[in-house]
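User: I'm new to structure prediction. If I give you an amino acid sequence, what do you actually give back? Let's try with this one:
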Amino acid sequence: MTESEYVSVAEAREILGVSKPRMAEILKKGLLAWEPNPVDERGKLIRRADVEALAAKAGKDTPANAA
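Assistant: Good question. You get back a string of structure tokens that encode the predicted 3D arrangement of the chain. For your 67 residues, that looks like this:
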């Protein structure tokens, strides 16, 4: 199975290892850009590359930055 270009907010939280309130703060501050989910109007989609870049900046291990 290939990884999607976009992840849900829940998946982004898991990658970043942050709580729901912290994730809401990240989105509100614009640290991660998001787009509305075309399948679920209540949901948001975030580019996986952006999440992994923020995780790398924060020193979190992700599949993209693990060696």
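You can read the tokens as a compact description of the fold. Here is one thing that stands out. The chain has one domain: 6-57.
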